[in-house]
Amino acid sequence: MDHFERQLAQLMRTTEERVSFDPRHRDRLHAGVRARRRTRAAQVGVGTLLAVGGLGLGLFLLPAGTDRVEPTAPRPGPASGPSSSEITGPSPTGEAPSPSWSPSFRPSFPGSTTSAPPATGDGATSTGTATSATSGVPQGPGGTSTSGTTDPTGTALSDPGTSAPPSGEISAPPSGTFGSG
Amino acid sequence: MGQTRTAEFEEFAAARWSSLIHLARLLTGGDRHRAEDLVQEALVKLWFAWPKVADEAPEAYARKVMVRAAARSARRRWWGERPVEHLPDVAALGDVSTAVAERSRLESALARLPARQRAAVVLRYYQDLPEAQVARLLGCPVGTARSHAARGVARLRLLLADVIEPVG
């Protein structure tokens, strides 16, 4: 600290003016304390309102958010056995089943309970199926088409409603059997 | 706050009022009204912190509040001043003495410093605080506080050259 700095420090101290703490200072101080107390109370009130409002809004929006993130149910796996009766109806080829294919309309074929509907859809099979479906004629054991009798496996005209057709397990009949008859 | 605490606080305020006002005047560059506002603000904050700091260092707490408020004041654009029709009473000519003249020169010189430089100089040379404590009060690194104080003193050296005689 050099001479100037010492003189500066001394000048700052010697120029102090004695000031008394008057009643007006005390009153002003008390007024300031009251004002600050009111301000703090208002701040606490506003903060509480905001917190409660935010919490309420969060709780209101929470169920909708949970539904969005809920995991979906697992997809049912493919049926592995012919005994599963749920998988009936449309063929795996994507053809729409005809109403005439209902079990009440078409009698079942003897010996065909373990058979499967046509699993693959080449042109000949589809055509034969559609023809028999739209004709509406019941096909009995004796009145079946020649294709049914010539079918070496006996699975061509089986009822799709009585057996489950897992597409990967049961092979399709030879396409030539339908088309030839 | 209880009656005892209130009495203690008012006793402290009455005892330290003069020195706090002087510190505030140095920090504000001699503005008497701003100095009173500064002390008022510091004491109001001290009132609420009194149960915690009464037994430790209440004056240091008030000083910290004043220094930070004074350093902040440089960023404030308006001090709530309003024009009035009648000017307040001014000091009579007979009041002017050598001490008052020196104080006026010192305060006007301090008023020409930036707020943070002024606070650093006042804390360093009037309060005689070490640089680390000055930095802590200003809320800045020690090097910054040292730089503020050095620049402020260099400016005052020019402004107060005729008041403080150099060593011959």
UniProtKB/TrEMBL annotation, chain A:
Transmembrane segments: 44-65
Keyword Membrane (UniProt): yes
Keywords of this entry: Membrane, Transmembrane, Transmembrane helix
Listed Low complexity bias regions: 97-138, 146-155
Region (Disordered): 68-181
Name of the protein described by the UniProt record: Cellulase
Organism annotation: Streptomyces doudnae
From TrEMBL, chain B:
UniProt keywords, alphabetically: DNA-binding, Sigma factor, Transcription, Transcription regulation
Domain RNA polymerase sigma-70 region: start-end pairs: 20-79
Keyword Transcription: yes
UniProt xrefs under InterPro entries: RNA_pol_sigma-70-like (IPR039425), RNA_pol_sigma-70_dom (IPR014284), RNA_pol_sigma-E_actinobac (IPR014325), RNA_pol_sigma70_r2 (IPR007627), RNA_pol_sigma70_r4_t2 (IPR013249), RNA_pol_sigma_r2 (IPR013325), RNA_pol_sigma_r3/r4-like (IPR013324), WH-like_DNA-bd_sf (IPR036388)
Domain RNA polymerase sigma factor 70 region 4 type: 105-156
GO-annotated molecular function: DNA binding; sigma factor activity
SUPFAM superfamilies tied to this protein: Sigma2 domain of RNA polymerase sigma factors, Sigma3 and sigma4 domains of RNA polymerase sigma factors
Sequence similarity: Belongs to the sigma-70 factor family. ECF subfamily.
Name of the molecule in the record: SigE family RNA polymerase sigma factor
